[in-house]
C-alpha cells in the first residue's frame, strides 16, 4: 500500500483514487498525442480552437500527474506512440479524431468519477468529464453532426 496522496483539498487519496487518476492520466497522454495529429491535418481556420484544446489536455495531464506524484504514487508515463482508430489524412478526419479523443477522455473521467473515493477527486473528474463533453459537442457541430451532444457523456458504448 502506498502512502496516501494529498488531494487539492489536503485529504489523502485512496488506492481507488490513485487507480482512477492513473486511468484518466493515460487517456490524457493519448489526447495530447492525438492533438498533434489533429494540429497537423486540421482545418487552418480551427487552428486556435485546436491549440486551446491541446493546451487543456496538456494542463489536465500535468495536473493529474502532479497529483499522483505528490504522494509517491507511480505516474504512468506516456507511450512512445498511440494507434488512432482510423487514418487521419484531411481536416474532416482530423475533426473526427478530435471527437473520438474527447469521447475517450470523457469516458476515462467518467470512470474516475465512478471509482474514486474522495470528493475532491470526484469533483476534478466531473469537471474534466464536462469539459470533454463540451469539446466533443463543439467538434460534432464543426462536422455537422446532429444532435451535437449525447445524453450521457462518457458512458461506454
Helices and strands in order, then pairings?
Layout lengths: L4 E2 L5 E2 L1 H27 L5 H23 L21 H25 L3 H25 L14
Antiparallel strand pairs: 1-2
Structure overview:
With about 160 residues, this protein is mostly helical. It is built from four helices and two strands, in the order E-E-H-H-H-H. A two-stranded antiparallel ribbon has the order 1-2. Strand 1 (about 5) and strand 2 (about 10-15) form a beta hairpin. Helix 3 packs antiparallel against helix 4 (about 120-145). The longest helix has 27 residues, at about 15-40. The radius of gyration is 16 Å and the shape is globular. The model is unreliable at about 1-5 (pLDDT under 50).
What Rg do the Cα atoms give?
Answer: 16 Å
State the separation between the terminal residues, measured CA to CA. 33 Å
Q: Low-confidence stretches at least 5 residues in length (pLDDT < 50)?
A: 1-5
Q: Look up the CATH topology.
A: Ferritin
| Full CATH superfamily name | Ferritin, core subunit, four-helix bundle
Class inferred from helices and paired strands: mainly alpha
What oligomerization state is this entry in?
A: single chain
CATH class: Mainly Alpha
Shape: globular
Helical residue percent band: 55-70%
- The strand count comes to 2
How much of the polypeptide forms β-strand, as a percent range? under 5%
User: Could you describe the largest sheet, including whether it forms a barrel?
Assistant: 2 strands, antiparallel
The H/E string reads: EEHHHH
| Arithmetic mean of pLDDT | 91
CATH architectural arrangement: Up-down Bundle
Amino acid at each position: 500500500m502506498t502512502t496516501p496522496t494529498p488531494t487539492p483539498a489536503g485529504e489523502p487519496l485512496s488506492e481507488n483514487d490513485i487507480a482512477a487518476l492513473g486511468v484518466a492520466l493515460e487517456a490524457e497522454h493519448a489526447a495530447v498525442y492525438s492533438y498533434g495529429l489533429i494540429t497537423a491535418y486540421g482545418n487552418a481556420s480551427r487552428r486556435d480552437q485546436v491549440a486551446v484544446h491541446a493546451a487543456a489536455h496538456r494542463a489536465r495531464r500535468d495536473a493529474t500527474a502532479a497529483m499522483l506524484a505528490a504522494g509517491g504514487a507511480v505516474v504512468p508515463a506516456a507511450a512512445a506512440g498511440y494507434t488512432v482508430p482510423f487514418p487521419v489524412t484531411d481536416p474532416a478526419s482530423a475533426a473526427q479524431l478530435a471527437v473520438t479523443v474527447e469521447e475517450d477522455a470523457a469516458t476515462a473521467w467518467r470512470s474516475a468519477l465512478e471509482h474514486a473515493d474522495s470528493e475532491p477527486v470526484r469533483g476534478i473528474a466531473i469537471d474534466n468529464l464536462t469539459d470533454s463533453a463540451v469539446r466533443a459537442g463543439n467538434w460534432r457541430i464543426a462536422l455537422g453532426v446532429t444532435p451535437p451532444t449525447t445524453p450521457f457523456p462518457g458512458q461506454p458504448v
